[in-house]
Amino acid sequence: MFKKLGLLAVCAASAFAMHNVELNINDKDLEFGAKVDMGQFNDTVEPDSVFVGAKVLHGSVDNSEFSSSSDMQDYYEVNFLMQRKVEATDLVIGLGVKLNGAKNFSSVPLGAEASYKLAFSDKMPLYVKGAIYYAPEVLSMQDAKNFLEYRASLDLEVIKNGSVTVGYRSLDTNYTASAGGDKNYNKSVYVGFKFGF
């Protein structure tokens, strides 16, 4: 409970400087995330290049490999991303690091993200996005053995700075053999909204 309140307080305190917020849902899962553009605070940082964010996912047993809801807790993460646009293209690539956690599980995955604006969509831009993060055993703590996350989504910007998204995510929280072995925390399709500020 205190973790949730703390996360909400951090999000509320920095709301005036958020780069974007997102809400993703399906029949069983609820995910909320926020990112702050560090270029708004520091003149030496180029806007839309360095982000700090947080995310929480309330997952369901129906979309996981856990046997009961008592075995699961909400998934939390704090993330850092550096990205840049590839010159003369609509491709944006980035490198990131996260600190994440769930029940008796924490890791520090490293990863890459990419976003590409499709050329035929000037009036209503359509973006194809993907991300992959991995934490080997050396970056896994508590009962964690390793972690693998991958995501893919299509984002349609229906109004300026407002997008509808359809995506797929897989959060593979692999525990040590003594803690229950490989357990996929969440594998599901979702729809959602993203708002930029």
UniProtKB/TrEMBL annotation:
Entry keyword annotation includes Signal: yes
Entry annotated with the keyword Signal: yes
Keywords carried by this UniProt record: Signal
Residues making up the signal peptide according to the UniProt record: 1-19
InterPro entries in alphabetical order: YfaZ (IPR009998)
Highest taxon of source: Bacteria
Protein name as it appears in the record: Uncharacterized protein
